[in-house]
Write a structure and sequence with these properties.
The chain is α/β, with parallel strands linked by helices and about 240 residues long. The chain has nine helices and six strands. The chain is about 40% helix and about 15% strand. The termini are far apart.
Length: about 240
């Protein structure tokens, strides 16, 4: 009875168009789902960005740069539909959208992640002030969902974002990296009994320039982690 009242007051809404969805356990309306742009082949073997030609292995970015992570997975291309959905998830308290996102992460990449056998799942950190104003770290919600389903421990505070970085838009790529590198700290206290962590799956909502994942990966590797993988909800195009 109580659940029924709650459902009437707070009906489940589609994470894409925000309309009420019935039945509520379908998570997304079918017309919206068909509009989403899923990352498909051909894609970059390293970061998984969609690429133009099948005969290429890497995107332009991964051809030029040598990232310290092994490889990454991403579900959708970061288009206008997903921009709106993720903005609501991040800034508008739509934590419940995570249900659909986590389902899709597991459906598409659950097996691949299991095969990689990561020792731990680590969300990309946000600064404490953002955490307090927002009430949650969106990447942590995703990390916990995947960790629970795949039975992999989540170490939410292994990476800490220290001081607030200046608006990244004004900086060029190199300054941006240097700036971020100073802000991301490896929190050795988060590792219980000095357990060795050989491999980590990083989780974030979006991969655009790749600088955030790159820096988190560099920091992990500088602290003894051997292999870093990542999964994000969305990624840009690699051409
Ligand atoms: Zn919809
Ligand atoms: Zn790439």
């Amino acid at each position: 009875m109580l659940q029924k009242i709650i459902d009437i007051i707070y009906p489940a809404r589609c994470p894409i168009c925000e309309e009420i969805i019935i039945p509520k356990d379908i998570r997304v309306c079918s017309s919206c789902k068909s509009k989403l742009s899923y990352v498909e082949e051909p894609r970059c073997m390293k970061c998984s960005k969609p690429i133009e030609h099948e005969d290429k292995e890497y995107c332009i970015d991964c051809e030029r740069k040598k990232y310290s992570y092994e490889r990454g997975f991403s579900i959708w291309v970061y288009d206008d539909l997903m921009k709106k959905s993720i903005a609501a998830f991040k800034y508008n308290n739509k934590k419940e959208y995570a249900g659909f996102y986590i389902d899709e992460m597991l459906r598409l990449y659950g097996d691949a992640i299991t095969k990689l056998k990561p020792d731990a799942i680590v969300p990309v950190p946000i600064h404490r002030s953002k955490y307090f104003s927002r009430g949650y770290n969106q990447a942590e919600i995703l990390a916990r969902g995947i960790g629970k389903a795949l039975n992999v421990p989540v170490i939410a505070n292994l990476l800490i974002r220290k001081k607030r970085t200046e608006p990244q838009k004004k900086l060029d790529n190199r300054q941006r990296l240097a700036n971020l590198q100073k802000a991301i700290i490896y929190n050795y206290k988060a590792v219980k009994n000095n357990k060795t962590i050989n491999s980590i799956l990083l989780v974030d909502d979006i991969y655009t320039t790749g600088s955030t994942i790159a820096v988190c990966s560099n920091v992990l590797i500088a602290n003894g982690v051997q292999k870093v993988y990542f999964i994000t909800l969305c990624i840009g195009k690699g051409f």
